Amino acid sequence: MTALDTATYHINYQKYTFYDEYKRIQPNIKTTQPQLTKFWSVSLDPKYTSEILRFIKQKFSADDYLKQIKRIKKVMDDSKHFHLEILICPVQHMESHVLIDMLKKWLTTPSDFELTLTTASVPLNKPYSKELCMSWSQLYWPLVWKGNPMVQEIRESYKNFKRGTVERYLKEACNLSNSSIASYPIATIIVDPIKDQVMASSVDKRSGEDPMIHSVMSCINQIADNERRRRKKLGDHKETNNYLCLNYDVYTTHEPCTMCAMALLHSRIGRLFFIKPSSVTGAIGENSGCKYMIHLSCTLNWKYEAFQYVGDRLQPSKLDSSLSV
Amino acid sequence: MTDCTYSHHIKWMREAIKVAESALEVPEVPVGCIYVHDGKIIGKGFNATNITLNGTRHSELVGYDMIRQTYGEKTKQIFRETDLYVTVEPCIMCASFLRQMGIRKVFFGCGNERFGGNGSILSINTDMPSRVDENIHIDTPYIAYPGILNREAIVLLRKFYIKENKKSPNANNKKHRRLDLQNFPKIEYSKYITRKQFTNLFGEENGWIYDNNEFMDFDDNNRITNVNTERDSKKRKLDS
User: Considering the entire predicted model, what is its pTM?
Assistant: First the structure.
């Protein structure tokens, strides 16, 4: 956040831009609201601490989104006795009776012990200041403060950001859109960043017969079709990874609509780059459309990074703002 | 017996359940849908994300491809007079797709707690963009009725996951899991529709189902069979 930082890294932490040309679309620090998720928590006497910790370690240790959340909360009841509230897992992951059965089998509680689950609201997104962290801990559930996560996140993102590569593919998408004879000058390219190879590219092909074949959807379909053909040809029926776009980069001339933004989330892409914002129909920008920011909306499953090109060298055609792309 | 105002919707949902059931043999996650236009099924499909290797091939999009192959240029016009019956709440992607296509109404079985786009996570079907200008076209909102054969939809999903767990070599702790037909999470109707919208369809006499977030049960004639024990006991008290 110092002048030196800015010079060495070309990061603007106030505007979230890299090289003054690529704006990383992320929640505004000042207006960050807790994204609360309901969790099962169980209330126990402190003497069961080690048992329950072993239980969590064995059954729920993979849940690494819990790193900033304290597992155990100490609560004093009216008679000045301490008991522990232990966070188990998101309510949507398990039905209460299944979890109670598991707990009863595991814990050495007396047979007449009444085990009850309560629900706790827990913020899964990170607070960006120590003050906010303390206030959320008071309001919801105790959190761990590990320094400003936004600075760490932006630096990590910057490390993987190859300006030349990004610009090359965005230019390619622009050229594709400008040379297209289709009715709408929108183009998308999907790239495997490890091989630095184009995996699919398409212009917008919507027509009266198929008004929904937006360029993002066409690219996702292309990748699946190609892989199906390849597996058929090779007689390859191994059950391998079926997330074919896993961590791929997507370059598109216009900010995607809700359908396309969510299709990219279902396909588990890594990053999205777009040039022109879609103020009414867009689903990524913090002020676009209904302000969904779909790339960050489903915290338990997957999210991807999104960048808007804010420079003035790349210029795809402007579109009617009520058009979903 | 004459049909009541909602019974044909239940009849159609039974068809959607049948479509979803056929996914179990493939095997795919058993979510199924049918599109009904003018009293006829014009499109149907089940989730096909595994066989196609394409995470976007949800039942709604599979059914759509069938419709556009029949109707071509007229597809969008047909959609405006078409209702969708789908066993699980449309995800955010499909909810947006349906709105852009101008679907008339949606009926669904159980909610989709991870990706639901008709009220569970986001309300894509009714939200309005913050920047509204009379010259700008906004896709027409649609109503999505939850809880139609909710239990049947959940049982299908459970059957699938039990089968999948048996295949997985690491699932030793789930091996003995039986199909649970007793316990179901409650549905919170107010997340999806208003009480008025509910009673307009199911009648004022069934408003208590909405208030108590009860599952709806239907008989062979597709009429609601839920009994309001609270009200009946009060009535009995008054009678005596």
Answer: 0.85
Query: What pLDDT, in 10s, does the model give residues A275-318?
Result: 999 999 999 999 999 999 999 987 667 899 999 999 999 988 88
Q: Measure in Å the smallest separation between the Cα of B164 and chain A Cα atoms.
A: 13
C-alpha distances (whole Å) from A50 to each of A45, A84, A98, A316 are 11, 12, 22, 60
Contact B129 A289 (CB under 8 A): yes
- d(C-alpha B160, C-alpha B114), whole Å: 17
Tens of pLDDT, residues B178-222: 788 888 888 999 999 999 999 999 999 999 999 999 999 999 999
The CATH architecture to which A36-124 belongs is 2-Layer Sandwich (3.30)
Question: How many residues are given for chain A?
Answer: 325
Indicate the fold that domain B6-130+137-166+176-239 takes in CATH.
Cytidine Deaminase; domain 2 (3.40.140)
- CA A291: distance to chain centroid? 15
Query: Which positions in chain B touch A298 (Cβ < 8 Å)?
Result: 114-115, 121
Asked if B60 is an active-site residue, the reply is yes
- Give A282's DSSP letter: B
With H, G, I as helix, E, B as strand and everything else as coil, classify residue A256: coil
Render A190-219 in DSSP notation, one character per residue: EEETTTTEEEEEEE----SS-TT--HHHHH
**Structure tokens belonging to residue A134:** 């303390």
For A162-309, give the CATH class. Answer: alpha beta
